[in-house]
Amino acid sequence: MDQLPPWAAVVLAGGSATRLGGAAKPQLRVGGRTMLQAVLDAVRGATTRVVVGPPQDVPADVLLTREDPPGGGPVAALRAGLAVVDTDVVAVLAGDLPFVTAALVTDLRRRLTRDGVLVVDDTGRDQLLLGVWRTAALRTAVAAPGAPRALHRAVSPLEVDRHRPPVTPGEVPPWLDCDTPEELARAREVAERSAG
C-alpha cells in the first residue's frame, strides 16, 4: 500500500452548547473519557493536532488556539486552526464526536483525491466537521475576503467527494454528536453497554 502523506488535524471545540446548559461540551465524558479526548485519540497519528476553542484541558502535545473573534463560528475557527497547519492534508473534526475512530480518519485520508472528502450521514446530510481536506484549498475557501460565516457556503466552491461509511445494525454511527441532553444520555448509555 502506498504511504499516505503527512497530515494535521484541526478539532473545533468551541460553541456555546446552550442546549446542554452552556457546559463545555467537548469536556463532557462519554465512556470514561471526554468527547474531546475521543476525537484526539482518533487523530493521534497526525503530525500536528490543533484544538480551536476556549481554554480547556488538552494533552501537552496538542496546540490550543482561539478563533477571532471568540465564538465567531466554524469558519473563523477553521481559519485560526489552519494558520498553524504546515502539512498538505488536514483532517477537520468537531470536538463532540465520541464514537469517531482512527480507522475512519485513515479511510477518509485514503479517499482524498480532490479538494476534500467528508462523511455523509444516514440521512444524506454532509458532515462538514468530519472530513479530510487539501490544506491549501480549505485555507483559501475560509480566508477569502468576505468568506461566508456559514461553513457549507464557504466550502461550496471546492471539489468534494462524499463517503457514507457502513454502520453495522445496532452500532453507533461515527457522526453521532451530542447537541442535546437526550443525545448525550444516549451516547453514554451506548458507551456503557459497549464496555459491559
UniProtKB/TrEMBL annotation:
Signal peptide (from-to): none
Keyword Transferase: yes
Occurrences of domain MobA-like NTP transferase (ranges): 9-147
Keywords attached to this entry: Transferase
GO molecular function ontology, one term from the record: nucleotidyltransferase activity
Keyword Transferase attached: yes
Protein name as it appears in the record: Molybdopterin-guanine dinucleotide biosynthesis protein A
Species assigned in the record: Blastococcus xanthinilyticus
